[in-house]
Task: structure prediction
Amino acid sequence: MPKKVDHEARRQEIAEALWRIAGTRGLDGASLRDVAAEAGISLGRLQHYFRTKDEMLIFALRRINQLAELRIRERIEAFTEEPTPRAVLRACLSGMLPLDDRSRIGLLVGAAYYARAVHDPALRAEAQQGIPQLRAFFADQLRRAAERGELPPERATEDEAMLLIGVAEGLATYVLLGVHEPESALRLLDLHLARLFEGAAGPA
Result:
């Protein structure tokens, strides 16, 4: 009886081969043939799962984002009590930093995708998709914090939510470049949160 192939698992293996290439030398020079060789399969077999490079890139980018969301969800679920909005924000924002090998590889791969996305409309549209939802989620947490007296009401805005995203992504970039150590980036993130929440009527 022929062995049943798990197509999703094979697509994931190909994506991981692409991540290894992206994490070490970027994506510009990576061809389908290069990825097939890294995955240990023939080019024809790879094209059975992905007809084009863009199709493969979009699948891999979606998978990277799913893993990042899972990592952040695990941080939130690790709380023994119901977390405050500030704690949720910190868990999400720290999850966007390269604090360990797994998150560092994910961000290196993401950086390679985003560099290509600047000139690739399909990838750019894919990369943009999650930003409005993340901004809305952060803004909702800020509003909840303001309702609890933990944040000045005038700071519970989508602009502040977008600034939080920008701070985390900027710090992540500087860790990848070696400007900051992960611990330093986390300290600066905490400093930004402390300043954002200062002046509240209730406990932060």
User: Anything to note?
Assistant: The longest helix spans residues 53-77.
